[in-house]
């Protein structure tokens, strides 16, 4: 009798964490390593939000709460959806979990049966296919390359739908590409989905407030109200509010789905941290002006990185609409040999050689389902980004 579950064999460890851990090992050996692999804002949690957490402790709000969120936070989430997206939800249509990842996982676990398919545009966040596999479903990935701006087209979506399709799961703006879907693009996708009423929509809006320039964020239930009754809109406070460690994600959708997710959560983690929930209430209801200030910093960093990478031999780097990632194409580097003698056979070999020879940690594109690319997180200082890009340029110049 095997000791480990067969379910575990369906998934692999996170490549993002693997690269972060490898960089940490080299750093511990005394190497000068610049880490561009972690998707985490480098800003501190705003003072008013942190104070709300401290106040919750001081006031004794440290006990168990309702399984899927305190009423005050659910009301704040409803107000957020109304304010930011023009969507009306009742508290019974809201779920709060320990980070956006748990909310996504709960929804998939609560709905997928063997044979059910989930359409996922690639590049995708590394966890999507593995969560589908853990839930017993089948991920159906659709390659969306640089030629479509890393976005799925209506024709691609139509072609991917089968009678077994349960969900269409996507992320805008995207991790890893930063590509966002415009209102018109979402309308076109919605027209496809309206023709297939058995397909539900799961939209990961975690980077909603991290957008740049003329791009304007919209979400499917906002663009096409007829989809609202089969859409789960997922969000959280991790990125825009610099609260990654507080671990609060949330979603709104039909009450029957929310109840099923709560049932599952009641037998797994139960409630998210009570302290974090009260901090999230302050995040959603308190001052929002710091978001624009932080975005100005991210946009400046984006422009710095895009310009520097496009100046590297063999690299093409599109300009992202939001988030804090770029996803350059390295087709011009494949098949060459590095200055240190490494054969650059694919993007994983590129990322490995770049880390070992130049001390820059990035995540290879195959981890996100589309190659040959790599992901850079520019959620770090301008000085670190400038130095990292200079090292990447030197690495590319050494390819023969």
Second rung of CATH, namely the architecture of the largest domain: 3-Layer(aba) Sandwich
Shape: globular
The structural domain count equals 2
CATH class of the largest domain: Alpha Beta
Q: Biggest sheet, strands in spatial order? A: 2-8-7-6-5-3-4
Q: What is the arithmetic mean of pLDDT?
A: 96
Helix content: 25-40%
The DSSP helix count reads: 13
Structural class: alpha/beta
Taking the alpha carbons of the first and last residues, their distance comes to: 51 Å
- CATH superfamily membership of the largest domain, which one? Type I PLP-dependent aspartate aminotransferase-like (Major domain)
Radius of gyration: 21 Å
| Count of β-strands | 14
EC number: 2.6.1.-
Catalytic activity: L-aspartate + 2-oxoglutarate = oxaloacetate + L-glutamate
GO molecular function, one term: pyridoxal phosphate binding
Domain Aminotransferase class I/classII large: 32-392
Task: Please give the structural blueprint.
Blueprint: H1 15-28, E1 34-35, H2 47-58, H3 71-85, E2 94-97, H4 100-111, E3 117-122, H5 127-134, E4 138-143, H6 154-160, E5 165-171, H7 183-194, E6 200-204, H8 220-223, E7 231-236, E8 249-252, H9 255-266, H10 274-285, H11 289-310, E9 325-326, E10 336-337, E11 343-344, H12 347-358, E12 360-361, E13 363-364, E14 374-377, H13 382-397
Keywords: Aminotransferase, Pyridoxal phosphate, Transferase
Domain Aminotransferase class I/classII large: 32-392
Catalytic activity: L-aspartate + 2-oxoglutarate = oxaloacetate + L-glutamate
């Amino acid at each position: 009798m095997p000791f480990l579950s067969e379910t575990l064999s369906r998934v692999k460890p996170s490549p993002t964490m693997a690269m972060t851990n490898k960089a940490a090992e080299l750093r511990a050996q005394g190497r000068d390593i610049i880490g561009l692999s972690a998707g985490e804002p480098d800003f501190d949690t705003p003072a008013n939000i942190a104070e709300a957490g401290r106040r919750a402790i001081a006031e004794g709000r440290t006990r168990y709460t309702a399984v899927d969120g305190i009423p005050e936070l659910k009301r704040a989430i409803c107000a957020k959806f109304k304010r930011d997206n023009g969507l009306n939800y009742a508290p019974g249509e809201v779920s709060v979990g320990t980070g956006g990842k748990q909310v996504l996982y709960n929804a998939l676990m609560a709905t997928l049966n063997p044979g059910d398919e989930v359409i996922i545009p690639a590049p995708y966040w590394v966890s999507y296919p593995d969560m589908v596999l853990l839930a017993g479903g089948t991920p159906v990935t659709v390659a969306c390359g640089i030629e479509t701006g890393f976005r799925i087209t209506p024709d691609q979506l139509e072609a991917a739908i089968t009678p077994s399709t349960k969900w269409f799961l996507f992320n805008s703006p995207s991790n890893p590409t930063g590509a966002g879907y415009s209102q018109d693009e979402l309308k076109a996708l919605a027209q496809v989905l309206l023709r297939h009423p058995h397909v539900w929509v799961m939209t990961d809006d975690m980077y909603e407030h991290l957008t740049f320039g003329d791009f304007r964020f919209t979400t499917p239930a906002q663009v096409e109200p007829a989809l609202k009754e089969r859409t789960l809109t997922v969000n959280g406070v991790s990125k825009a509010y610099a609260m990654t460690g507080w671990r609060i994600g949330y979603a709104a959708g039909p009450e029957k789905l929310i109840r099923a997710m709560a049932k599952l959560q009641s037998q797994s983690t139960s409630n998210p941290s009570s302290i974090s929930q009260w901090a999230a209430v302050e995040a959603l209801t308190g001052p929002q002006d710091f978001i624009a200030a932080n975005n100005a910093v991210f946009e400046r960093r984006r422009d710095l990185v895009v310009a520097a990478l496009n100046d590297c031999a063999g690299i093409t780097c599109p300009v992202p609409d939001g988030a804090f990632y770029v996803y350059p194409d390295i087709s011009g580097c494949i098949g060459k040999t590095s200055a240190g003698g490494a054969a650059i056979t694919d993007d994983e070999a590129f990322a490995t050689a770049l880390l070992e020879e130049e001390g820059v940690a990035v995540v290879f594109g195959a981890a996100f389902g589309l190659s040959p690319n790599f992901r850079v997180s520019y959620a770090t200082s301008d000085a670190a980004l400038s130095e990292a890009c200079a090292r990447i340029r030197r690495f590319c110049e050494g390819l023969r």
